[in-house]
Amino acid sequence: MFLACTHLALACTHLALACTIKLRANTPVAGKLAPFLWGVLGRIREKFENEIRDLEQSEKQTNAKYTETKSKLLESEDTIIALRANVKLLEKQLKENREVLSKMTDERSQLKDIVRKEMKQDLSSLEKEVARLKEEKDKELQQVYSRVKLAVAKKDEVLSELTRDHAALQEKCVYLESMLEQQRKEYLIK
C-alpha cells in the first residue's frame, strides 16, 4: 500500500509538471493555472505523505503487537511442554506408588495367613497334647484306683501348667497380633 501511494504521488507530480509545461507554452492562462495546479499537487502530496506516515506508524504498532503475541505464544508453549512433562512424571510416580502399595498389601495378607496358620498349628498341637494327657490320666485312673488322689493332684498340676502355657500362648498371640498391626501401620506410613 505504501508503494502504491508513493507511485500515485509521483504520477500526479509528473502529470502536473507536464500540464504546466504545455500550458506555459500555449496560452497566457497557463501562467495563472500553474500555481493553482502546483497548490493542488502540494495538498495531494501532503495528504499522501500523512497517510504514508500513519500507515508506517500503524505497521510498526502491528509488528510490535505481533512480536509480543508471538513471544507470549512461545512462552505458553514452553509452559505447556513443561506441564506435560510434569504430568507424565507424576503419573509414573503414581503408578510406582500403587505397585508398592499393592506389594505391601499382598505381603500383609501373606503375613496374616502365616500367623493364623501358626496359631492354628499351636492351638491344634496344644489341644492334641491336652487330649493325650487326658487320655493318659484316664488310663491311669482306670488301672490304678489306689493312686487316684496322687493322679488327681498330678492332673490338676498339669492342667494348671497347661492353662498357664495356654495363657502365655494367648498373650503371645495378642503380642503377635499387635506386632502385626504395628508392622502394617509402619508399611502404610512408608
Automatic annotation (TrEMBL):
Q: Which residues form a coiled coil?
A: 41-186
Q: Where is the secretion signal located?
A: 1-18
Taxonomy, superkingdom: Eukaryota
Keywords attached to this Swiss-Prot or TrEMBL record, sorted alphabetically, are: Coiled coil, Signal
Q: What Gene Ontology biological process does one annotation of this record name?
A: regulation of centrosome duplication
Q: Which InterPro entries match?
A: CEP131
Which GO cellular component term is one of those annotated?
A: cilium
**What name goes with this protein?**
Uncharacterized protein
Q: Which organism is it from?
A: Popillia japonica
